[in-house]
Amino acid sequence: MLSKALRAPPEKWHGLQDVEIRYRKRYLDLIANPEVREVFNRRIAIIRAIREFLQGRGFQEVETPMMQALAGGAAANPFKTHYEALDSDMYLRIAPELYLKRLLVGGFDKVFELNRNFRNEGLSRYHNPEFTMLEIYEAYGDRKTMQQLVQDLICHAAQQVMGTLQVGTKDAPIDLTPPWREVTYRELLCERAGADWFDLDVAAAQRRAGELGVSTDPGWGHTEISQEVFEKLIEKTLVNPTFVTRLPVGLVPLAKASEGDPSTVDVFELAIGGREIAPAYSELNDPLEQRRRLEAQAAGDASKLDEDFLAALEQGCRRRVEWGSALIAS
Questions:
Q1: Secondary element (H or E) of residue 26
Q2: Can you say whether the dihedral through the CA atoms of 122, 325, 55, 141 is positive or negative?
Q3: Which of 7, 58, 256, 257 is most buried (CB neighbours < 10 A)?
Q4: What is the pLDDT of residues 202-224, one digit of tens each?
Q5: pLDDT at 12
Q6: What's the mean pLDDT when you consider all of the chain?
Q7: 242-248/181-184 β-pairing
Q8: Could you tell me the sign of the dihedral formed by the alpha carbons of 159, 163, 166, 169, in that order?
Q9: Residue 190 half-sphere exposure, CB side, CA atoms within 13 Å?
């Protein structure tokens, strides 16, 4: 006995049941509920397996700034702070993307970062304002390169930590056995919302979405309505690993256009267990097109443009791909 207990421990036989106390005082949860400790141990083992796998494939682990002058690399509301020494406002990063791309410009061909990101937005069992993300970049690859990499990585981690590719729960089993399904975004929406979905105008799409039980904002365009239908009705049905490809260009402004279809981008979103696990894409490396897309995203606010990043692209950047996701969330 290392120290005297001044407070009574959780009840021995029934453990700690109060959900609020369990989450506010995780140390008591760990003491009282061995299954919670096992979740923590598995998370630690998964992180170790990810590092071993990527380093074995020649990727170098790097660290990029968590406090940035501009919150870029994703569309999210940032946490804001103030740097006293420079008397300037700074932001906790919402993604490490733009700094990792600078490393590619500088000649680091295969890099990854296991990093903490901060998004000042919703809070739920699936979204935490502070979370862990794995982001990977590889020069001379494309979207298909990343599909193979993420499939191999997840299968490796499952085998190392769980000893099987049959995961999930008894009520909701998941089969990770490759090869994984690949299907286009358009196909999934037409299956669920009607074969004529992409022929509808905005008003008709809003009516159809309402008939399907999906609420939409009157100011949304067709892309936003489509994404809401996908997230509310389709994504949750993708239980076994599914690569959803060829997303609308408006959803991913940093990706290359799909071959033969400039209205979509060469992207996949990987869904497992009814949730998005990882997006990836053939990275846009045309500095002129990148500037046009970021200006459109900024909607006329020049202060939101990362001119240093755009200058880096103008130095010349090789073809590359990105995979980033809250794969392991805290």
A1: helix 26-32
A2: negative
A3: 256
A4: 999 999 999 999 999 999 999 99
A5: 59
A6: 88
A7: parallel
A8: negative
A9: 9
CB 176 within 8 A of CB 154: yes
pLDDT of residue 77: 92
> Can you say whether the dihedral through the CA atoms of 238, 241, 246, 250 is positive or negative?
positive
The answer to whether position 207 is within a domain reads no
- The contacts of residue 70 (CB under 8 Å, 6+ apart) are 91, 304, 306
pLDDT tens per residue across span 101-137: 889 888 899 999 999 999 999 888 778 999 999 999 9
Which amino acid would we find at residue 9? P
233: its two tokens: 């009705």
Residue 44: domain span: 34-180+240-325
CATH of the domain at 301: 3.30.930.10
For range 289-317, the mean pLDDT = 79
Which residues, 6+ apart, have CB-to-CB distance to 222 below 8 Å? 198, 200, 201, 202, 205
Q: Provide the domain count of the chain.
A: 1
Contacts of 268 (CB under 8 A, 6+ apart): 143, 146, 147, 182, 243, 244, 245, 279, 280, 281
